[in-house]
## 1
Amino acid sequence: MGMSYRRYLSGNRIYGCSGCKTHLATIHTMISRVRSLSYPSTPPRLPPGRSAHGFYPCRHSTASTGRAYLFDTVVNVVEGEPSDRQMTTGNHTVRDIYCVKCETVLGWKYDYAYEASQKYKEGKYILERNLLVDVQ
Ligand SMILES: [Zn+2]
């Protein structure tokens, strides 16, 4: 894949991938904590050449807690293809985001928000809390 290049963050609090501890974001780029997160109703589309093994169990476990963080900047992720999803906050065009190292699905990026009140999310990233670990 040639995707081994990874960035390393510094700061008081760094969030990493729960699977491989790759740095993803810091508390400084966190915009808000999202409660009662509506889960995308459509199953994630797998990128070409990737198997579903180890993919759906994560999805199920995150759906039970529904806690996630909204970040302005996230590093070391691969963005999937855009798709429209209906959430409790309205319809959004989102992309799944994957850990660049272990390919765990970590959340999604908002490409476009149809509701005016949700426009601030465009270009921002959702990371699911139970897929993150604190890295120091
Ligand atoms: Zn990872």
Note: The chain has one domain: 14-135.
## 2
Amino acid sequence: MKSFIMDTIKGYWYIAAAGSELKAKPINRKVEGESLVLWRDEAGNPHALRDRCAHRGMALSAGKVVNDCVQCPYHGYAYDGQGRLKDIPSLCSGERLPRVRGMKSLPVIEQQEQLWVWIGEQEPTRKPFEFPHYGEEGWTTFFMQTRFHAPVDMCLENFLDVPHTIFVHPGLFRNEDQDTVQTRVTRSGESVVVTFLDEKPMEGIGPRLVFPKGVKQKHTDRFILPSISRVDYEYGSDHQFLIVSQCTQREEFVVDVTTAITWKLPLPTLITKPFLKWYCRKVIQQDVDILEIQGAQMKVFGRHFTHTKVDLLGRHIHALRRNAAQGSRKLKDMSQEVSIRI
Ligand code: FES
Ligand SMILES: [Fe+2]
């Protein structure tokens, strides 16, 4: 097997779990190379520590919550949200609590139904990413969680890749009539965006059912550091549809993706929601299947690829992520028009 090194980009918030997954019992989640225990105190506030008891290394996530602390299931050491040892049930009388080393606490924020954990050496310097239009008047959002078995940059490229759609999702997005489309690729700061300047409205059952005919389509695909993809479709101000995905690396080839499907359409949610849930699940499952094969291939053959102009975002995603992971100087902003056939 080829060896890979997981590119972890520090200095960002990552989704560890959906808020609804964290109930009375502690849970373990791996986030960008850290194995964490998460739990809630009595007030419902979430906490995260590295999932290892300082005493004999037991997984704290196998324990329980006692007096707002997570209690180790082996000998009962109890730690608070800062990782301070608060209790040892078997301590002899007169014996003081020992100083513990190596307990690491991570900042957690519950925002927009998700538990975000700060991965970084310093204190948080920014807020978690906000899913656009979540909770706004006239907009509806639902979240999907999906596990992919491929490297995170391959997942991100897939979510923003146009030419795979007719092969992997036949009949769902586009028909096979190829067309030359003018695009503008703009990389600036922490993101890179492709604007499709004169794309024909999409075909396929999804777009046909929810978007109006004869209205000009506005379409952008965007990557945002460290691991977010955002796709926008707009057909006038009253038909808008967004697919925003946040990736968390559990392991090198295990990526959990939280996708927010968000829309504003002049159709009853009672109809749009079940349809979009079915449609998006079908589309995403097709990507899960193709990426699982790609991931397995990469384990055997490694990572060396060929590119053409239509691979608009892959190399930018790779460059932005590599620079951020290495803490190198920021890449120069750029903008260029590219004509592609899709
Ligand atoms: S291993 Fe945790 S209390 Fe002993
Ligand atoms: Fe896809």
Note: The radius of gyration is 23 Å.
